[in-house]
Structures are given as structure tokens and as C-alpha cells.
């Protein structure tokens, strides 16, 4: 039970002074008489017991958790599609367990109803034939997918994971505002909301009887695993990829549930079976949690312009080899026109009314309803019947009283008459308000709640709270949409009994699923390899630039041929010497970030933050850093940062195949760039100072001093940077590393026989081991370079295709 | 009218393609009252790893092909004997244009030949204000739905120039209309967009047409091409009619139907996907040989 000391009422009174609910809209916190509702008492007492500075400080802990965890979303419509911080409103919305239980039961009824309607829409069409649903509305719905008609899902169910947006209307009842049946997002963010809450309300939360959300995920994951055909087949999450607005959530939830995060191009269909291309060959997938809109899923039979899909996916569905969560085509129910028919369909199909009504909706395709909409236009939102936007997220054509109708449509009456079947009118929404922390005090803001539900062997499980949406202003409920500046809040369901058991997750120690190992998708291997190469390449560029800019001030270019020679070497790599920070360096780091971005589910937050910091630093420096000393110093800073990133990755990454590809990328890049360096600057005709440059770029100045008693000469440099197996930066060391990794990759040696790739690596290793500084001349170096390039190509052909 | 139809399509890939997937809509339709498929064979070389022959939503024969190994060339061959048994001219009690919307709003059938599928704009026949304004102008005086269909088709035939070099398979209908140039596919998409803007359900028909050689010259082998025209729903009494705007005629015994869809995207003869490094070239030859009438 709560052990907060009772406070004099005056402190709560002070805290809530100026909290003025909007007339006509119910408030979550205060009842009609202005008294705090019982379920809020403990939280408000806690908040009122602290100064606004203390509250700011405790809320900052939650915000800083989110920042460090890298929680972000993208906003559609941003020109640069930049990542935005997660806009969490720190004060949770509080709901009693009793009230929540009613919501749960009402939404279970609705989820079952939607399942039945879907089965009919893709089955025998009784609902349209009997006149309960206009056929033209179904046919005109862009999410009603004709290739899915008659195709029963393998599990017999269309819906497995759904969400409902609900709000409390003027009469105090809950209303369904929108059905999310395609691929609802937000459940992963709900977990992060809760994590942030536990940071903001550290001591208080533990005893506040808040029902935990993690059991919901465990039940859902177990349900997905149970759908699998065989034990060795996999469960994957299908994402549109890094450019999606909520890609963070896809990567986060994949990591959290221990499932593979897959893009359409990872998948292929072989003889009717859906497979993932992995470095060990194609592996079966039998369950996909789809976060990709259905129309993009298969360019052969759905949207032919999609580059995100998997050709032949529908064939696999027809063959019954894969469970799609949710079925392709389930998004049809998101059209707002359905709201006009669901109350009646519920009566027809179940004999009972909807336990929780949805917002009143009229389809203007019939005479009587058209007349009603015309007569009540002033309080109705009028717009396209098949819009998939919710009433809270009006599209460009939906407006109060139909004011945004096309100019050509004439008067409202004319518009309704001419285009009635394409239009619906919906009750304009009034939402209840909830307290939001703003500039040192709480103010009321309209809110709605997204309720997530998962089908499990024991029926629909409901996530207890977790995700509320808050409007940016008190006047406009439509502003609950994130794209209109709204924010998000945790939702606490408060039990009247003590809640026991911190889940592993809610105590903050990360994911609970054990990752399925030995199962690296080829695309991920490809990205890891290139990440290794790009990071190493950027590091090499930094060393070259530091050497160049450090020398141009000390020496006169005319008398020192090394400088123009170094400049042309840089130019040949595409790196300009005109700027302190050349664009090419920013580009190399951008390429590294791009590869890493597609691997977010595999990286620690620290490694990701470190790479992002590097990118930001170099972009900032590019505005101010000049040529010469300034640039040389800047390169020093960047070099320390990039080696920090490499350290985080190489020291902390689990030693499975993915790490090997990353290391292979680094070793191959380092080998090739060192060979090139020797080719130019250790050549007998290289300008004076070339040999010193080599050991400086090769980060081996100290070693050279210790290792050789003689002055620097071509033989010592070639030996140290080319052949010395004890120098971790020598070409020979890289090749040794390459061989050891390749030998441990899948298929490297079967039945005692080496694969062609392993043979080529071994040949390279033998070749370099018999060289001496004298034999490693220009010709031998160029042969070596060619062999390394070939090995890189062979690696790609063996594992990335 | 009976025909022997043969078609060969060859796809050549510069670099060997792997995981080639194709969906083929080439087998002529078997539609009672309109056309009878007497015999037909579709063969694919090399032999596919997997082949599924089925009917799509609209009842068209479709063949899904998977070629898992590396291929440099794919040949698709069709041989079919078809009898065109009926025409698609309007017959029956005309429906006034104003009554159509209410008919469709109350329509309860969601099956493949229901008009409800053909009302909304589609990707290759999207709503376009210029086409809509044109369609309104050229049909304003017609008092029946079928009359409007014919009026729009005739007007397009008059105002558009047939020009195989003006457009490609992916040129948007609006662009072809703005240029007033294109091939049968463009004529058809423009007419579909126009009819839908008038509230008349309209779809795409792909098929073959018998070509008549210039007087005094022999028929050239392989010179016939695949063709496209429009199907339009003219109310509950008249039902579906087919109009060929490229030739300014309702579809008759010279029009052999392969597939019905909402636009070209749904009934493209061959839709493909593969992983290949290089480009591809394709070639086709079509023969439609009349066998004389059969009664």
C-alpha cells in the first residue's frame, strides 16, 4: 500500500491552483465538483509534496533516459526526415483497474467482431450480399486486397495484434476513435514510456500498484513461437527499413523479443516456402510479424512499384507455409466508413450491441443518412469514406461541415448529392483532459489512449496502459496527433491490490529473449562488412589528412616534393585538400552511419551514440576548421573518437558470425590501404620523407624506433608495415586475421575440404609469408593488391548474394 | 469466329538472372456467351522450378512461374484455339446516366463481375482533371450510359493520334492525353479514367485482335500484336459492354479476350522480378489466324 505521509489538503490545493478543466469536456483528474478522483490521489499527493524544481529534476531523469536510449521517431513531411526526440509528457494518465477491466472486455468483443468481419470480407461476402455493408465501399477500399480473397490464413485467423484508439467523450463514456488492424505501431514506444516513468518516479512507482506491461509481451512472443510449424523455423519482424517513421521501434522490439529484424529483400520464396537469405544459405521462416503495409509486401501481386517487398510472398501464403501477423489485407477495417456499419454488424453477427461504442458515423451513400449529415453539418467532420486516417488525424479533405470540399463541388448539399457514396460524416470529437506538466505547473490537455491487444493461446491479452496521446493545445483535440505537435504519455492502470514482481525488463536490464544465433541474414552480413570497411577507411583518411595538414605549415611546398605528392595521393582517393574538413570524409562517415543504421537491432546503444557523435562532430567542424594546423588538430580529435567507436564495437560485440564480417571489413580495408601506401611512399622513387610518412600513417612510429637500430630505410618500412606478423597494423597481420575469420565462417571447410574462398585466403597468406622486404617490390605489391581485391569480391559472392 | 493464336515472348538477360519470378496473363479467356477456349497450351523454357496455374480474382487464367537457378533467357510460348461466340455491343433497356450512382451504391454483389470494383481510380488510370473535363464535354448531350461510352470512345479516336513512338508502357495516361498521342494501352487508360470520372464503372481488357492486311498483300507472320480496349458497365439491364477506342468500335468477332482487370497493372501479359546485374531485352511475335466462321 501507499506509504506517503498524508499532506494537508492545502498543498494539493496549491499544486492544482490554476488547473482549470475545459468547460464541456470531462477531466481525468478532477470530477465535476472539482475534487481529485480517488485513483489520482496518491500520484497528486506525491507531486504536490515536491517543489517544481524537484519535479523538473525528476522528470529530467526520464527524459535523459530516453535520450541515452536513443529513442526517436521520424516525422513524415520533414524535408530532411531527421530523427526527432521522443516527446514524452512526464505525468502519466491514471486509470483504475476496475475501469480498465471494462475497457478490456469491451475491446475483446470488438476484436472478435473485427475478426469475423474480416473473414467474411475475404470469404463468402455474406455481409454485403445481405445488404449490411455496401459492396462499393469494400471494393473501393485500397486495403481490400483482391489476391487475398478466398485465401484462408494458415492459422485460421486474420488478426493477431491490433490496437484501438479510445477517448472519453463529453458524457464520460469511453468511445472507440479508430481501429488499427494492419500493423499498429506504438507498443515498443509504450515499453520505453514505462522505462522513462520508472526513472522519473523511481521510488514512488515501485509502491504505486501500477500494473506491469512486460507480461503482455511475453504472452505475445510465446503465442508467435507457438504458431511455428517446426521448432527450427523462425519468427521474424518484417520492417520497411530505416527510412520508416517508427523504424526505431521495429529495431527495438526485435532486440527486446529476440526476433530477427527482416526487410523484404532478406526474404525469398523457394518452392512455396518463405526463406531468409543467410550466410548459411536460405533458412525457413514460418511466422512474420508484419510492420510493413500490405500493399508493399509483394510487387508481383500487390503494388508493382514496391521495392520493399518480397516477390512471391503471396505464393508462400497460398502454400500455407507462413503465418502473417496480421494477415495481408487486414488494414481494410481501418477505413473510417466501417464505423458507420460496425454497430449494426455487431448486432447482426453477435446479437448484442457494442459494449464500447465507436464515434457516430454516417455513410452519405443512402438518402436518409445524407439528409442527417446535411442537417447536422455544423458538428460533423465530413470527408472521404475510405480514408484510413482517424478522425483525430484529419486528412486534407476532411473538415468540420465539409468546409474543405473541392472548389468544383459547389455547395455542401450539391457535394453530398454528387459524391455521397464516397463520403462520411463523423461526430466531431470532444476528448477528456488530463494533467500535463508545463512551465512549472499542471495544465489540462485533451488525450486519447492507444490500447494494444495480442491474440494468445488463451485469448486476447490486453496491454495494461502504456501509451496515451496528448494534444498540443487545449482547444484542438485533433492535435493529439504527433504530426501536429502532440506528445505521448505513459498510462498507468492502478490496481487496488499490491502489484508484485518487477519484470526483468522493468528493472532496466534490457531484453529477455535469447537471440536466435547462427542465423545471420546476408544483408546484415553485407552491412557489417561495409561498416567495418567504411570506419577503417574514414580512420585512414583522418590519418592522411592529419599528416598533410600538419606538414603544410612546417614546410614550404616548393622545396618539399612530399607535399604535392601527398596531395595528389589524397586527390586520387577523392579527398580534397582545399578544405580543412573535406566532404569526402563526411561522406565516408555518412556511409558508415548508413550501414550501421540498418543494423540497429544488433548494436549497443553506446556504440550507436558514439557513431552519431562522430558524425555530428565532423559536420560541426566542417563549418569552422581551416587548412593547416587547425585541421591537423581536428583530425586528432576525430581519430580519438573513431577509435573509441571501434573499441566499443570490437570489444563488446558478441563473437558470432556478425562480428567476423565486421572484422573482415576492417582487415581487408586496412590491408589494401597499407599496400597502396607502400606502393607510393615506400617506393625507391618516392619523395624524401615518404618512409616517415608511411610509419606515421601506419601508426607504427614508436614500434619502428624500438624494433630497428638502424635508420629508417625502405627495407625496415616494408618489413614493419608489410611483413611483420607481430605488428597489428602490418599487411601480414591483416591477412592472418582474414584467414582465421574466413575459416570459421559457415561452409568454409566441409568434409575436410576447403571452400574456394578459404583456399584463396590461404594462398594469399602463403604468398605473403614467403616474401622478404627485398622481394616485396612494386610488382609484388601490385599483385598483392589485386589478390586482396579478388578476395573481397569472392567474399561478397559467397555470402552476400 | 474461330482463331488459332500463337505467341512467343523471349526475355534475354545480359547477366544471368537468379530467382526469376513471373506472373503470366496470356491464356485466352473462357467466358460463356462471349468466347470459348477450345484448346490452349502455355509452355515456359527452361522448365520452371515451380509453376502454379490458377485463376485470379477476376477469373483470368494466370500462371505463376519461379525459376530459382541462374537463367540467361526465358521463352514463353502460347498456342490456343479460340471461338469468339458473342459480341460486347450494348443491348437492353438503357439506363439514364443520373440513375447509375444509386444503382452502384445499393449494389450487393462483390464478385468478380460486379461493377463496384471498377469505380475508383487506379494507379494506371488515376483521376485527372483534364481527362474528366474532356469526358464531360464530349458526352454532355448523350441521354444513356452506353451512349456516353460510345461518344467518349469516338471522340478519343478522333482527337488522339496513334503513335507507337510517343509513349512507353509506363507513360502516365494524363501525359499521353496531354500530348493526344499513344498506343492502344494509352487510349484505353484515358478512356477508363474518363468514364470513371463520369461515374461509369470501367475496366481494362487485354487481348488479341485480328488484323487485316492491306489490300493485295499477304498477311505477315508474327505481325499481329496484343491489343487493349475498354469494358464499361452501362447499368443493370445493359450490363458490360466493350469498346475499342483505338479502332472506334464496340468489340466484336475480331476481339479475342485474354483478361479483364481494373487497369494494365492487373493484367500485364508478363510481370517479372529477378536479381540480375545487367539489363534485359525482350522480343515478341504474335499470330492470330482466322479459321473461318463456325456455325
From TrEMBL, chain A:
InterPro entries: ATP-dep_Glu-Cys_Ligase-2, CP_ATPgrasp_2, DUF403. Residues 520-800 form the DUF403 domain. It comes from the Bacteria. It comes from Pseudohoeflea suaedae. Residues 92-471 form the Circularly permuted ATP-grasp type domain. Signal peptide: none annotated. It holds the Pfam family Alpha-E. This is Uncharacterized protein.
Automatic annotation (TrEMBL), chain B:
Residues 176-247 form the Transglutaminase-like domain. Pfam families: Bact_transglu_N, Transglut_core. SUPFAM superfamilies: Cysteine proteinases. This is Transglutaminase family protein. It comes from Pseudohoeflea suaedae. The lineage of its organism: Bacteria, Pseudomonadati, Pseudomonadota, Alphaproteobacteria, Hyphomicrobiales.
Amino acid at each position: 500500500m501507499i506509504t506517503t505521509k498524508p499532506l494537508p489538503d492545502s498543498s494539493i490545493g496549491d499544486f492544482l491552483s490554476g488547473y482549470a478543466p475545459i468547460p464541456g469536456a470531462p477531466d481525468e483528474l478532477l470530477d465535476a465538483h472539482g475534487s481529485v478522483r480517488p485513483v489520482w490521489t496518491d500520484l497528486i499527493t506525491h507531486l504536490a509534496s515536491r517543489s517544481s524544481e524537484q519535479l523538473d529534476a525528476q522528470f529530467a531523469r526520464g527524459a535523459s533516459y530516453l535520450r541515452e536510449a536513443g529513442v526517436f521517431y521520424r516525422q513524415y513531411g520533414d524535408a530532411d526526415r531527421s530523427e526527432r526526440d521522443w516527446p514524452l509528457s512526464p505525468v502519466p494518465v491514471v486509470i483504475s483497474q476496475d475501469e480498465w477491466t471494462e475497457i478490456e472486455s469491451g475491446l475483446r468483443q470488438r476484436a472478435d467482431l473485427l475478426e469475423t468481419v474480416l473473414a467474411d470480407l475475404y470469404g463468402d461476402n455474406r455481409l454485403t450480399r445481405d445488404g449490411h455493408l455496401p459492396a462499393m465501399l469494400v471494393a473501393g477500399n485500397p486495403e481490400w486486397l483482391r489476391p487475398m480473397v478466398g485465401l484462408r490464413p494458415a492459422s485460421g485467423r486474420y488478426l493477431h495484434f491490433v490496437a484501438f484508439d479510445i477517448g472519453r467523450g463529453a458524457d464520460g463514456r469511453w468511445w472507440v476513435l479508430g481501429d488499427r488492424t494492419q500493423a499498429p505501431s506504438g507498443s515498443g514506444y509504450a515499453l520505453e514510456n514505462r522505462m522513462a516513468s520508472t526513472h522519473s518516479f523511481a521510488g514512488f512507482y515501485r509502491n504505486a500498484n501500477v500494473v506491469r506491461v512486460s507480461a503482455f509481451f511475453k504472452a505475445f512472443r510465446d503465442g508467435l513461437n507457438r504458431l511455428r510449424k517446426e521448432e527450427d523455423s523462425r519468427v521474424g519482424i518484417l520492417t520497411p527499413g530505416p527510412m520508416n517513421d517508427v523504424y526505431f521501434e521495429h529495431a527495438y522490439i526485435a532486440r527486446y523479443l529476440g526476433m530477427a529484424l527482416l526487410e523484404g529483400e532478406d526474404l525469398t520464396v523457394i518452392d512455396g516456402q518463405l526463406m531468409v537469405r543467410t550466410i548459411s544459405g536460405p533458412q525457413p521462416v514460418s511466422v512474420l510479424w508484419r510492420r510493413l503495409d500490405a500493399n508493399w509486401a509483394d510487387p508481383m501481386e500487390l503494388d508493382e512499384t514496391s521495392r520493399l517487398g518480397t516477390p512471391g510472398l503471396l505464393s508462400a501464403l497460398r502454400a500455407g507455409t507462413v503465418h502473417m501477423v496480421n494477415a495481408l489485407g487486414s488494414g481494410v477495417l481501418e477505413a473510417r466508413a466501417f464505423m458507420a456499419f460496425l454497430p449494426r454488424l455487431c448486432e447482426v453477427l453477435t446479437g448484442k450491441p457494442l459494449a464500447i461504442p465507436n464515434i457516430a458515423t454516417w455513410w452519405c451513400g443512402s438518402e436518409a443518412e445524407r439528409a442527417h449529415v446535411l442537417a447536422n453539418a455544423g458538428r460533423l467532420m465530413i470527408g472521404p469514406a475510405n480514408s484510413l486516417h482517424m478522425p483525430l488525424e484529419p486528412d486534407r479533405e476532411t473538415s468540420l461541415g465539409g468546409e474543405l470540399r473541392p472548389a468544383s463541388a459547389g455547395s455542401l448539399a450539391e457535394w453530398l448529392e454528387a459524391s455521397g457514396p464516397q463520403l462520411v460524416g463523423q461526430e466531431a470529437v470532444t476528448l477528456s483532459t488530463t494533467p500535463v506538466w508545463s512551465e512549472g505547473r499542471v495544465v489540462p490537455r485533451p488525450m486519447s489512449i492507444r490500447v494494444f491487444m495480442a491474440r494468445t493461446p488463451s485469448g486476447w491479452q490486453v496491454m495494461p496502459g502504456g501509451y496515451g496521446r496528448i494534444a498540443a493545445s487545449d482547444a484542438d483535440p485533433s492535435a493529439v496527433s504527433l504530426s501536429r505537435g502532440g506528445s505521448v504519455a505513459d498510462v498507468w492502470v492502478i490496481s487496488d491490490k499490491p502489484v508484485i514482481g518487477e519484470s526483468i525488463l522493468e528493472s532496466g536490464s534490457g531484453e529477455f529473449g535469447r537471440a536466435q544465433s547462427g542465423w545471420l541474414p546476408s544483408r546484415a552480413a553485407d552491412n557489417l562488412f561495409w561498416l567495418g570497411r567504411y570506419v577503417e577507411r574514414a580512420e585512414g583518411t583522418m590519418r592522411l589528412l592529419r599528416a598533410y595538414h600538419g606538414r603544410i605549415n612546417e614546410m614550404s611546398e616548393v622545396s618539399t616534393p612530399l607535399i604535392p605528392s601527398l596531395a595528389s595521393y589524397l586527390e586520387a582517393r577523392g579527398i580534397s585538400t582545399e578544405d580543412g574538413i573535406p566532404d569526402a570524409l563526411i561522406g565516408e562517415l555518412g556511409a558508415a552511419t548508413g550501414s550501421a543504421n540498418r543494423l540497429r537491432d544488433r548494436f549497443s546503444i553506446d556504440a550507436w551514440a558514439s557513431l552519431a557523435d562522430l558524425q555530428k562532430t565532423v559536420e560541426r567542424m566542417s563549418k569552422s576548421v581551416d587548412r593547416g594546423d587547425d585541421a591537423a588538430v581536428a583530425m586528432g580529435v576525430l581519430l580519438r573518437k573513431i577509435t573509441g567507436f571501434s573499441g566499443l564495437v570490437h570489444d563488446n560485440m558478441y563473437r558470432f558470425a556478425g562480428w567476423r564480417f565486421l572484422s573482415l571489413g576492417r582487415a581487408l580495408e586496412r590491408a589494401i590501404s597499407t599496400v597502396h601506401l607502400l606502393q607510393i611512399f615506400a617506393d625507391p622513387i618516392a619523395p624524401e620523407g615518404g618512409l616517415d610518412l608511411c610509419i606515421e600513417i601506419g601508426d607504427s612510429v614508436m614500434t619502428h624506433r624500438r624494433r630497428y637500430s638502424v635508420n629508417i630505410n625502405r627495407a625496415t618500412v616494408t618489413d614493419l608495415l608489410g611483413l611483420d606478423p607481430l605488428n597489428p597494423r602490418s599487411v601480414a597481420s591483416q591477412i592472418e586475421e582474414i584467414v582465421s575469420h574466413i575459416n570459421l565462417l559457415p561452409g568454409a571447410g566441409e568434409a575436410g575440404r576447403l571452400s574456394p574462398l578459404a583456399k584463396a585466403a590461404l594462398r594469399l597468406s602463403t604468398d605473403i609469408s614467403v616474401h622478404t622486404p627485398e622481394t616485396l617490390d612494386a610488382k609484388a605489391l601490385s599483385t598483392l593488391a589485386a589478390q586482396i581485391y579478388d578476395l573481397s569480391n569472392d567474399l561478397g559472392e559467397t555470402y552476400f548474394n | 469466329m474461330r482463331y488459332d493464336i500463337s505467341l512467343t515472348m523471349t526475355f534475354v538477360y545480359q547477366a544471368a538472372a537468379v530467382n526469376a519470378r513471373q506472373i503470366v496473363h496470356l491464356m485466352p479467356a473462357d467466358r460463356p456467351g462471349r468466347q470459348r477456349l477450345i484448346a490452349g497450351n502455355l509452355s515456359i523454357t527452361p522448365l520452371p522450378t515451380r509453376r502454379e496455374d490458377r485463376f485470379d480474382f477476376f477469373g483470368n487464367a494466370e500462371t505463376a512461374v519461379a525459376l530459382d537457378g541462374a537463367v540467361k533467357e526465358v521463352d514463353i510460348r502460347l498456342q490456343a484455339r479460340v471461338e469468339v461466340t458473342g459480341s460486347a455491343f450494348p443491348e437492353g433497356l438503357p439506363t439514364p446516366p443520373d440513375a447509375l450512382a444509386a444503382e452502384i451504391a445499393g449494389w450487393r454483389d462483390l464478385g468478380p463481375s460486379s461493377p463496384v470494383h471498377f469505380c475508383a481510380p487506379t494507379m494506371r488510370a488515376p483521376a485527372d482533371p483534364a481527362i474528366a473535363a474532356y469526358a464531360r464535354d464530349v458526352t454532355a448531350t448523350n441521354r444513356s450510359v452506353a451512349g456516353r461510352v460510345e461518344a467518349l470512345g469516338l471522340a478519343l479516336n478522333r482527337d488522339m493520334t496513334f503513335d507507337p513512338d510517343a509513349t512507353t508502357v509506363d507513360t502516365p495516361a494524363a501525359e499521353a492525353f496531354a500530348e493526344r498521342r499513344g498506343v492502344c494501352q494509352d487510349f484505353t487508360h484515358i478512356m477508363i479514367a474518363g468514364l470513371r470520372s463520369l461515374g461509369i464503372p470501367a475496366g481494362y481488357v487485354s487481348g488479341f485482335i485480328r488484323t487485316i492486311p492491306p489490300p493485295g498483300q499477304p498477311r505477315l507472320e508474327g505481325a499481329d500484336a496484343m491489343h487493349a480496349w475498354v469494358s464499361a458497365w452501362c447499368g443493370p439491364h445493359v450490363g458490360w459492354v466493350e469498346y475499342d477506342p483505338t479502332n472506334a468500335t464496340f468489340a466484336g468477332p475480331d476481339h479475342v479476350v485474354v483478361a479483364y482487370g481494373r487497369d494494365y497493372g492487373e493484367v500485364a501479359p508478363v510481370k517479372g522480378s529477378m536479381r540480375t546485374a545487367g539489363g534485359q531485352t525482350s522480343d515478341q511475335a504474335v499470330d492470330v489466324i482466322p479459321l473461318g466462321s463456325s456455325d
